[in-house]
Amino acid sequence: MEAKKKNKSYKSSQRISLTGSYILLIVMSIVWMFPIVWIVLSSFRAEGGAFVPYIIPKSFTLDNYKILLSNSTGSFPFVRWFLNTLFIATISCILSTFITIAMAYALSRLRFRMRKPILKIALVLNMFPGFMSMFAIYYILKALDLTQTKFALILVYSAGAALGFYIAKGFFDTIPMALDESAMIDGANKWQIFTKITLPLSKPMIVYTSLMSFMGPWMDFIFAKVIMGDKVENYTVAIGLFSMMTKTTANSLFMSFTAGCVLIAIPITILFIIMQRFYVAGITSGSVKE
Amino acid sequence: MFNKKKYEQKTTFRELFKKGDAMTKLSFVIMGSANLANKQWLKGLFFLGTQVAFLFWLIRNGLTALSMLSTLGTQEQGLVMDKKLGIPVLQEGDNSMLILLFGIAAILLCILMIVLYIVNLKSARHLYELKQAGQKAPTTMEDLSSLLNERFHATLMTIPLLGVLFFTILPLIYMISIAFTNYDHNHLPPKNLFTWVGFSNFANVLNGKMAATFFPVLSWTLIWAVIATATCFFFGVLLALLINRKGIKFKGLWRTIFVITLAVPQFVSLLIMRNLLNGAGPINATLMSWGLIDTAIPFLTDPLWAKISVIFVNMWIGLPATMLVSTGIIQNLPEDQIEAARIDGANAFQIFRNITFPQILFVMTPALIQQFIGNINNFNVIFLLTGGGPTNSDFYGAGSTDLLVTWLYNLTLNTMDYNLASVIGILIFILSAVFSLIAYTRTNSFKEG
């Protein structure tokens, strides 16, 4: 009798706490989705001005998108920015992935005399705030007559990739050495071991690395801004959209700006959601203790 | 099998010079001679070629670049009377900035050359030793194939390391050197020259005029980093637990909702947040139309409110990442302990406090410290949300929410005090280094490394 009662009260308290959990989750979801919903709604808003004292627009329109996409020669050539970013991101993704994987593999699987010193130096170099050297890089690029070019951005992003090998190295460390050893007994050289054994096993890591190095240029703001300066036609979307909001025209451009944000966020979000298991695998395999 | 092969006692370079044949001796002066003598054409020509190119460069540019490093230029740009024309003519002066940059690049090139020179000597010694042992020198083809085997690491790493040398190390040395010059808004090349001043910039920041800005900014940076890391971590773990608890349906859907905010580029979400929190923005407008407040809340224009806003917006951005990672950990936690605790009558809070949380904390400590360092350097959130503002008249070139990094940015871009910016950069490095050392000594990949 006593036990039954206890069981019943346990069950009802469970139900109450479960309801509480749902309410909490719903409230949090609303808070988290609110800015995103707001920006999507704003991008379809027909009434002008940056700020209106309500959230749901009174009338909807596609004009904001049309204005944004048709302004190919004006002060905000969005399509051009988009293609610039796509180009920079694709090339630096390929280069950075090669560089990161090569560094990580060499430092994880191969044994050579400079290995430990390189690991330590990389550790120290990573501790400097990334853009502390930004202005020096700017002057180096200027000396090479490369500033305000897309090539300069690609160079900077890919050259920086060589130090971001720690997560990939953590992954390679987990692949058993016995595989390499047995291949070596069978007469494989290190190149063959790398391409025929380790790389096929490292698909999650390669996907993670390339995902991160593809998204880097999309998200990067500060390097692109310093290197591109006022060369509007070579802007990436990040600085392009930001520049739309700092001009005196910010108020009238606001809805086109939100339309641009939506157009940028959607492909990246989809890519990210598809790839998120690699993202988790990347973070955990790189830093978590086994 | 993977251990380095142990060679017997090597011949020293001195012995090599004494005992080696003429071509080996010549290697000490003309790089690659020994290789050429042994028909290693590719290697020999490579050594010879680099030496010729290096000497050519050294005579043409290198020596001047190196010699001007000590003064950073003496010739000021200005009008000089041209006697032939009888009118003053603008004469181009030295540019301290370029002198410093090229000087450092020249030093790096020299070091690179010394390394190559030693490699050349080692190669000559290797040939000598092979000959002593009566073995044949490896042919060019054998050398090339060793790049895919014994020296595979060289194949993989040469290009990345050159990138690091010229795009990370060179700029860093350059920036560090600037901390010891008076390169500020009064000494902007090419109009003016700057010169070495020793430690006076450090004294200025730590003890002089800049201290009144530095220490408040430093303490806000630390407070921010602690709160930002702690809130994201704690609430991220709670959210993960909430989604993962038994009985909650549509787990994937809930997770996706939060992951979406992680995927939206920061420059988008932060600019949106800035608009949402604007004095005339929708949040204030909504609150006012509901009658909850009479005047707009100064989310971004009041120092205290701005700080609170930054922390909350950072939670919005950072919490989903912690949620994702801790989900992975929670799903791998052993069920039996929690079950046992529940049978013993522990409530949900006790289980969380004594079992789940400590385990998650243990696994995530390294990542947590990395996040902490990341927050010390969290440029995006501050720059895109408040721009460092609201402006603070007590500070030099910094606002109330400026972190050390954003202050560094202002010092370079707005006030052009490159020397102070470099000092701040070095101090940030010291700060990060201390915490990184704690973090990395705890991570797996370093311990095994």
UniProtKB/TrEMBL annotation, chain A:
It is found in: Cell membrane. GO terms for cellular component: plasma membrane. Coiled coil: none annotated. Residues 82-275 form the ABC transmembrane type-1 domain. GO terms for molecular function: ABC-type maltose transporter activity. One of its GO terms (biological process) is maltodextrin transmembrane transport. The chain crosses the membrane at residues 21-41, 81-106, 118-139, 151-168, 253-274. It is a multi-pass membrane protein. Keywords: Cell membrane, Membrane, Sugar transport, Transmembrane, Transmembrane helix, Transport. It comes from the Bacteria. PANTHER family: MALTOSE TRANSPORT SYSTEM PERMEASE-RELATED, MALTOSE_MALTODEXTRIN TRANSPORT SYSTEM PERMEASE PROTEIN MALG. Belongs to the binding-protein-dependent transport system permease family. MalFG subfamily. This is Sugar ABC transporter permease. It comes from Enterococcus saccharolyticus subsp. saccharolyticus ATCC 43076.
TrEMBL record, chain B:
Residues 218-439 form the ABC transmembrane type-1 domain. GO terms for cellular component: maltose transport complex. The chain crosses the membrane at residues 41-59, 98-119, 159-180, 217-241, 253-273, 308-330, 351-373, 418-440. One of its GO terms (biological process) is maltodextrin transmembrane transport. Keywords: Cell membrane, Membrane, Sugar transport, Transmembrane, Transmembrane helix, Transport. InterPro entries: MetI-like, MetI-like_sf. One of its GO terms (molecular function) is ABC-type maltose transporter activity. It is a multi-pass membrane protein. It is found in: Cell membrane. Part of the ABC transporter complex MalEFGK involved in maltose/maltodextrin import. Probably responsible for the translocation of the substrate across the membrane. PANTHER family: MALTOSE/MALTODEXTRIN TRANSPORT SYSTEM PERMEASE PROTEIN MALF, MALTOSE_MALTODEXTRIN TRANSPORT SYSTEM PERMEASE PROTEIN MALF. Belongs to the binding-protein-dependent transport system permease family. MalFG subfamily. This is Maltose/maltodextrin transport system permease protein.
